[in-house]
Design goal:
It is built from nine helices and seven strands; from the N terminus they run E-H-E-H-E-H-E-H-E-H-H-E-H-H-H-E. The chain is of the alpha/beta class and 256 residues long. The protein is globular, with a radius of gyration of 17 Å.
Length: 256
């Protein structure tokens, strides 16, 4: 992963919270904030991966993130974790709603339990995390909430109907919360990753032929990686994006 040459001085010693931060894009975001010297708090259900990342990032950046195992579909536990993050500095500077589950299920076989479980992790938790962050950010009159969408709704990816519905919902959620929270000085944006070639994607979904097809569709003829997304998150978390809210920021290499 990159050492993130771009520096955002306002992030240093500020408290930030990242959900689903143990692997993939989330891990890159955690590392990116640590390179900035932020007090980085992240949660994940994968305890082993979270602990491994914590040690590795501390060795590389000299800044140790704070890790707590948490199932983000447990709203009470999620709220508690976000509040813990604010305990470090007494406030919360940025919330990154990265946690998601892109489980493939044919639409004709989706059950009510499948629907409820996938909505809980892909959409519901983003709302309640943002609600909690609002209460912590409003007294300081500033803050950045970064939701995560996906290009999947526009691509018609097979067997992703529930996930795609949730990610389409993130657009409306972001726009609505930006309006509701804007008077308190809180910005709400969403990052929309394209086909980011994480180890998991390459292992489970993207074979060499699919990878070539993905890159052919992009304006930029290279693989899009976790660091590309992390760079956008840093920008949106920092005061450099102080005039940006209610927007979607695509990181997809120009997928057309």
């Amino acid at each position: 992963m990159a050492a993130y040459a771009t520096r955002y001085p306002d992030l240093k010693k500020q408290a930030v919270f990242v959900s689903g931060g143990a692997t993939g894009i989330g891990a890159a975001i955690v590392e990116a904030f640590c390179w900035q010297g932020a007090h980085t708090y992240f949660v994940d259900i994968d305890e082993a991966a979270g602990e491994t990342l914590t040690a590795g990032v501390a060795d590389k950046t000299g800044t140790s993130p704070f890790f707590h195992r948490c199932d983000v579909t447990d709203t009470a536990a999620l709220r508690d974790a976000i509040e813990r993050a604010s305990d470090v500095t007494g406030s919360l500077y940025a919330l990154v709603n990265n946690a998601a589950r892109d489980l493939r299920i044919p639409a004709e076989t989706v059950t009510e339990d499948d629907w409820d479980a996938l909505v809980a992790v892909n959409l519901k938790q983003q709302f309640f995390a943002a609600q909690t962050a609002y209460r912590l950010m409003a007294p300081q009159g500033a803050g950045s909430i970064i939701n995560f969408g996906s290009i999947a709704p526009g691509q018609g990816v097979p067997d992703l109907s529930v996930y795609s519905a949730c990610k389409a919902g993130v657009f409306g959620l972001t726009r609505s919360l930006a309006r509701d929270f804007g008077e308190a000085g809180i910005r709400v944006n969403s990052v929309v990753p394209g086909a980011i070639l994480t180890p998991r994607q390459l292992r489970d979904w993207i074979d060499p032929e699919t990878k070539e097809a993905v890159i052919r569709r992009q304006c930029l003829k290279r693989a899009m990686l976790e660091d590309d997304v992390a760079e956008m998150v840093l920008f949106l978390a920092s005061n450099a994006s102080r005039g940006c809210t209610a927007q979607e920021f695509r990181v997809d290499g120009g997928n057309i």
